[in-house]
Amino acid sequence: MAMVPSDRHSQHSEPAMARGSQTLMLAATLLAALLSVQAADLQRLQLIPEFAGLSAAALGAVQADAQCTTANPPGETEVNNVCDGCNAVKPCVSAGALGWVAGASQACPSSTPWCDNGVCVATTPTGSCNTAQPDPSFTCTSSGYFPNLSSCSKYWICIGNDGDPTSLLAYAGDCSAFSNAAYDPRTGQCVQKSQSTCTTVTCRGVGNQVYTPAPWMYVTCLSNSVTDALVVACANKNQSLTNGVCANACNSAGRFPWYDENSSTITDTASFYECVQNGKTFGSPVKGTCPTGSTFDVASSQCTTQGSQP
């Protein structure tokens, strides 16, 4: 008997093909929607000048900015600018699925140098910006106040343990907040420019040079760039760099104890030296010796039988 072909297989395959076609159409629709969202995100990115003209691949590598994201929680009013540190502001742009991204930071102008909640303001905001941050661009050689070799309106404060150089941290100071003021290296204070003794320094190769406004300091140039130079202070203000060592010098008029080289220590307690002012200079130190049985008293600057030492 002849076999009659069955159409049961074709009847079952048609619904399966239909379902497969529907799945493909749905996937295509979802892919198109995703591509549309991604395209919109990329368009948002191109609104930021720094990203304009970048390829899709380059834009796709852009990551969300943590500060901008934190400032813009879902459902809250959009924040379009955030502070980038204490003295700069950066724009925030929503890039959809990419999150919140940031444009380039812009420094606040000198008239409003501080950033507070994304706005440049004239007064220091409360919080972390009131706490000075160390500046690694200056290398401290000891604690104390030091001139900025490139600017007479600025200076450096070094804080730490002199016995442990790694503990010394530099903090930037600025006299420009005061009207017509400059840093005076002799007093370590901001004064009127007409009263300041500050001068800038130029390095011409490797070597040492006395810092004339404060002669107990000297500059060690490590190259032709003054930004690489070190500022070193002698152990006390009565010394100056002479033949490679900090030796007793006349930095002011008076009678002074005879300090050991490179030190604030006084081993020879019976000796002293005198300096006499001659115009704007103080000449060379003239050594003296107290009479037998007496020592030099630092407090009174005289020889006594009961001398006091620092």
UniProtKB/TrEMBL annotation:
GO cellular component, one term: extracellular region
Organism classification: Eukaryota, Metazoa, Ecdysozoa, Arthropoda, Hexapoda
Pfam short name (any one): CBM_14
Domain Chitin-binding type-2: 137-200, 247-310
One Gene Ontology term of the molecular function aspect: chitin binding
Record flagged with keyword Transferase: no
SUPFAM superfamilies for the chain: Invertebrate chitin-binding proteins
Keywords from the named record: Signal
Protein name (record): Phosphoenolpyruvate carboxylase
The keyword Signal belongs to this UniProt entry's keyword annotation: yes
Signal peptide residue numbers: 1-39
Superkingdom classification of source: Eukaryota
